[in-house]
Amino acid sequence: MRVGTKSVLIGAHCFFIHPFFVAAGWLRLNGIPWDLRLWVAFFVHDLGYVGCPNVEGPEGEEHVHLGAKIMGLLFGDSWADFTLRHSRHWAKKHGVSVSRLCYADKMAFVLTPAWLYMPMARATGELAEYMAKSRDRQVGGGAFNEVERAQVESGDAATWLCGLKSYTRRWIEQHRDGAEDKWTISRVPSAGQIGTR
To answer: CB–CB of 182/173 below 8 Å?
Structure first.
């Protein structure tokens, strides 16, 4: 079974756990999510990971399309766009701003307790991928503060999680009011990187 599928079934994007943390993130940032369409978005935005061989690679990055398609069929283009733009890396790659769903989704990561997140991400193989990519992502970006950088580069999963949660919380606070995202590094490979993987 592919890591993306495992993520949706029992991992960090678990279809019966993660949406409730996204709702909690929305509540914290925007107030009570009364609109039923928001709840549908909370549940479908990550379903595109099913079948993906990774969660942080090029295939995983395109996971946004399935949830957007579902939302578009059910509620129209504006809700499709809202769901499509929940990934900051996808948005950066395509030169668009993120939607408010992105901030709630990131807050969900911050709010998910380590005792729950760690076993889920470890069981699916996501944890190693996340740890490697979070270090790689910041090369040239400099968005981690000194403490976060040391934590993320520590090699210890619990310490890494503390550092990444701190960074994510700061990213939300810095950008949730529409500030330009200069922290997120586009994953579009440079000419020298194409074909090297």
So the answer is: no
DSSP state of 88: H
Cα(126)–Cα(108) distance, integer angstroms = 17
Cβ(155)–Cβ(66) below 8 Å? no
Q: Look up the pTM and report it.
A: 0.91
Ordered by start, the domain boundaries in the chain are 3-175
Residues 15, 47 contacting (CB under 8 angstroms): yes
Tens of pLDDT along the chain (197 residues) come to: 999 999 999 999 999 999 999 999 999 999 999 999 999 999 999 999 999 999 988 999 999 999 999 999 999 999 999 999 999 989 999 999 999 999 999 999 999 999 999 999 999 999 999 998 887 765 545 588 999 999 999 999 999 999 999 999 999 999 999 888 888 876 544 333 333 22
Per DSSP, the three-state class of 77 is helix
What is the residue whose two structure tokens read 């029992």?
Answer: 10
